[in-house]
Structures are given as structure tokens and as C-alpha cells.
Amino acid sequence: MSDASTSAKGDLKLTNVTKSFGEFTAVDNLSLVIPEGSFFALLGPSGCGKTTTLRMIAGLETPTTGTIFVGDTEITDMRPYKRPVNTVFQNYALFPHLSIFENVAFGLRRRGVKDKDVTEQVEKVLNLVELPHLAQRKPTQLSGGQQQRIAVARAIVNRPALLLLDEPLGALDLKLRRQMQIELKWIQTEVGLTFVHVTHDQEEAMTMADTIAVMNEGRIEQMGSPADLYDNPKTAFVANFLGQSNLIQGKIVDSDGDSHVVDLYGQKVSVLKRRTVAKDSSVLFGIRPEKLRIQPDSHDKPGNVLIGGKISDVSYIGVSTQYQVEMPWGQEIMVFEQNDDGIPPLDKGDEVRLSWEPIFSFALNGHEDAQAGVDVEPEAE
Amino acid sequence: MKSLSRWFGRNLIRIYMVLGFTYLFIPILYTIIFSFNDYIKSNLVWRGFTWHNWQTPCGVPNICSDLGNSLKIGLLATFVATILGTMIAFALGRYAFKGRPFVNTLIFLPMASPELVLGASLLTIFINLGFNLGFWTIVIAHVMFCISFVVVTVKARIASLDPRLEQAAMDLYANERETFRRITFPLVAPGIAGAALLAFSLSFDDFIITNFNSGTVETFPLFVYHNAERGLPAQANVIGSSMFLIALIIVLAGQIVSRKRKIA
């Protein structure tokens, strides 16, 4: 059974991949290189094409156009069982009539591995996921977290070039999910395989992945490390989907040195040129809520300042306080302030000014929808 | 008075259950009891207990050869109907093709049609085609009406099967044939077994359609019918009771096996 294709190694390369279902284009001319050994996340809302992309890599869908390579081996039209790829399915898809041992051994047996080696490898991987004592149980006798780990074990025991994870933690409760995030990351480092992880949970993607590709409407909006995506979003969708952003409509009115001067409804602020993505003078000026400082209107602070705000809502949540501040032009601005200075939080109705270090702000193409990626519907499942 | 009505209210479901089961089981109990009747000619009046009927189940002319016919026809019809019906069920359950809803409806028609009409139509067809009525025409007729029941039973099982299990098998290097053999078939098998049991009992039991198409061959239901006019021998009760006991053992064994599987 084992032939050259199932042992192919190397980077995963998708080139101009498009997948259409009738009129609907699920994946639109996507090109992507996933380096060997990395933990890569495809992040996006429901229906953005991330699962379809994963299924094309697994061989469960065939691209309408485009090619997929692992190293030098083309796998575009290869049957799923010929690919050097294994998948951890959403809801795990463990075989209910087989024992845990036989579930994990399934791939090895199909490839004709000798009984003795099967036993040895299955035991090793069950030790890795810390469930060797459950080998003779049936899947239904395991908890969700245990099933999840067996699903991972069943895939990695085959040492594929690529491990695909389709919303692997979606069915677990929050606490278990956190724990599994750390464990999966550890397993990936331990076995050194390439992991491609599909998720709609930005926190999950940021915790685990080295590189994240944010997908929206069948295309990649932006790709980069978690910190890079968070600090330097290139589109309004990314700015809103990864964490939260205040995006304010503005106009570049002047430039000096490495900064642009931006007019926000009559008030002047600045933004670094290298953090500006604009087609013309119209921009969406962006600043993260935790980068803002909030003071009573009488105070004076250096840096960029917006005056004339009025607190419309205060939520005290222990570690921080979240403010909604209504600006003179009617927009609500979010501010997260750490409760680390012993000063009691400000009250609703207080007049305030907002300030920040200019290096924290960014500017996006002003013709974009400032609401893109806000409140995208949660995953169907 | 008040406490009585409260007792009644609390035990209503239990009383209902006892009455319901009594209604269901009295005829079966009657059949079993009268298989021990020391009858003469007609087995309608209780005349005393005897083991004689159980010791000589074939002691009445034709009864065991007719039973043999019924078993042979039942097994053959079940075998063919289960294979054909399972294949149809997979086609209907797995593949979206043009006209599938229409075919789904067609499958229900034989179940909905009156047996008398089906029996009479089959007779017309067999005569027009010049078939000799007998063993094989009965088998063909039984396969025909069993298929629908098999399709419906197996399809329900396939519908409850998560397609991701097959995808997972393919993902784990099993080709289409291996996936079917190791995953699909074992998971659908209980449904197929249930369908086969249903088909067998339908075939074994059938009188109306068989009566039209049997020619000179007699099955067990025909034997019972023909003899009921003259007085049914208690050996018929013996065979009826045995069938009931065998069915009971199969069901119990099935439950024990599936419970053991869950524990193991």
C-alpha cells in the first residue's frame, strides 16, 4: 500500500486554487505556501472557504482550477488515501465499532505495517496523548476531551507530511479547549509535523499558530504571525476580526518625516507612514481599545489626543475597565483600561479626552467598510 | 375513596401497560397452551394436557413438507430481497441523482398496495408469460414485496451513518473497497440483519399473494388455511409456538450481544 505519494515531504503549495459549487465560489484564486514543520492556521468566519480549502488538501473535494503540491509531488486530483495527509475531523469521526487501539492502528494496518510494529507505534502514540489505559475501550466510552486526543493520535501515528485539523476543539468546553490548545501545540513541537489548523476562533489561532492566514469570502485577507496581524492589520476585516479596533474615518492632510497628519472630524492626529495602507488621502484611522488612555477632560497629556468625549457606558470587569466613549461626531469609541493605578474608574456621563502613543495607531484604506468583520455570525456547528 | 383514586392515578400507566400486553399476548399464549391439547380432529376445545403433539410435530400429513417449503421459500426470498434491497438503499441513501424523490415514492408503493391486488396482478403476469405456477413463482412474488421493506429499513440505517466516518477511513489510507468492508458495511450490518429478519417473517407469514401464485405447491400458511376448515391439528400450534420461541431467542440473543459490546 505504501508508495511514493504517501511518503512525500516538503512545503504545502496551493497555486491559484478556485473551488466553485454551481454559482457559489467557495474559494477564490487562492495561493498559499505553508512551510514544512510549521503550525499554520486558516482563520475566518463561517462560510469564508477555510473548511473547503482544508477538504481540498485532504482530497475530500477537488479544486475547480489550480494545483496543490506537497514538496515536488502534485496531489491536486489524488484520491484521499494516496495523500501524505491525515485529518483530525470536527467531532473526531472515531470508528464506533472499533476499539481505541484499532482506531489508532487503522492507518498503519491499511499501509501494511507489520503487526508487531503496529502494536509498538500505537502504544507509543497513546503514551504521547497520555491515554494508554484506554486502548481496549470503545470511542463512546470516552469523554469529549479523550476522544479529541485519540483523534489526534489516530492521525499523527501515520507521520504524515501534513496534519489537518478541522475545528478540532469546537465541541469542547472553554476550560478543556484552553488545555487542549497548549497540548496540541506541545504535540506539534514534539512530533515536528506540519499542522494546518482551521478555526473561526481567533484566540485559538493566535495561541497555537506560528502563521495565520485570515480568510474572508474565499480569499486570504492577510497572512502573518499573530503579533504582526494584530499590530499591523492591512484591512478593516482583519482589524475587526482579530481582537477589536476603533476605526475612525479621516483624511491625510499633511506629511512630515515618517508620519502622516490625519484629520479626524477637525482634530489632528498622526500615524506612521509604514503603518498606513491607503489608496488616496481618505483613510480609516485605527487604534486598539487597550492602547487608549482615558482622562478627565481637564488633564493634559502628550502624544495624540482626541477631546470632547463623553462616557456612555462603563463595565468594570476586575482586571480592567471597559468604557464606551461617545465622540463629538457621534461615534462610540471603545477603551480598555487596566485597573493598575488604584484610581477608581470614571463614571458614566463624565467628559473625557482620549490619548495614545502615536506609534500604536494605524491607517487603512478609507474606502473600506469600517464594520467589516464586526459581529460576523458564529460558526454554524 | 380518595386514596383509591390516588392509587389509580399513580398506577394508571402500569395498569394500562398490563392491559396492553394482555391484549397482545393472549392469542400467543392461547396458541402455546393449545399446542399441548389432547385433541381429536378439531383443536378448539380443551380436552387435557399431553406431550404427544410436541413429540410428533410431523404427525399430520403434509405439515412438515409444507413447513419445509415455507422455510426454503423464506430463506431464498430473504436472501435475494436483502441483497437487492440493500443495493437500492445505498443508491437512494448515498447518491443524489435526478428523480431520486420519485424513486423514493415508488419504493413505498408495493407496501401501500393491497396484497389482493398484487397477488392477482402477479398471477396475470405469470400466466401471460407462460410460467408454471409453483415454488419459483412464489419466490419471485415474495422477493417483490419484501424488497420495499428491506430498502426502507436499510436506508434508515444508512441515513444515520455519519459520512465523515467513511471520509476518515479514506483519509487513513483505506481505498473505496476497504472503506466499505471495514467501516460502511460493519456499521450498516445491524440494519441489514434487521431487514433480513423482517423479510423472512413477511415471507414465512404470507398467505394472500402466495395463494394466488402457488399452483400445486403448499406452504405452511396455506396448510393452516386449508386445514382450518376441517379442524386444525395441534401440530400447527406446535410449529407456531416454536417459531415464536425461536424469534424470542433471536431477539434476546441480539440484545445480550449488543449489551456486551457496549460494556466491553
Overall description:
The complex is a heterodimer of chains A (381) and B (264). Chain A has helices spanning 50-58, 100-110, 115-128, 144-156, 174-191, 202-208, 226-231, 236-241, and strands at residues 12-21, 24-34, 39-43, 65-70, 73-74, 85-88, 162-166, 194-199, 211-216, 219-224, 246-256, 259-264, 267-272, 282-287, 293-296, 304-316, 320-326, 332-338, 351-356, 362-365. Chain A has 381 residues and is of the alpha+beta class. Chain A has two domains: 5-231, Rossmann fold (3-Layer(aba) Sandwich); 245-365, Nucleic acid-binding proteins (OB fold (Dihydrolipoamide Acetyltransferase, E2P)). In chain A, the strands form four sheets. Chain A has a six-stranded mixed β-sheet, sandwiched between helices. A five-stranded antiparallel β-sheet of chain A has the order 13-12-11-14-20. Chain A has a five-stranded antiparallel β-sheet with strand order 15-19-16-17-18, with no helix packed on it. In chain A, a hairpin with a 2-residue loop joins strand 4 (65-70) and strand 5. The longest helix of chain A is centred in the middle third of the chain and has 18 residues, at 174-191. Chain A starts with 11 loop residues before the first strand and ends in a 16-residue tail after the last strand. The mean pLDDT of chain A is 89. By secondary structure, chain B is an all-alpha fold. Chain B has eleven helices and no strands. In chain B, helix 1 packs across helix 11 and helix 7 runs antiparallel to helix 8. The model of chain B has no long low-confidence stretch (mean pLDDT 91).
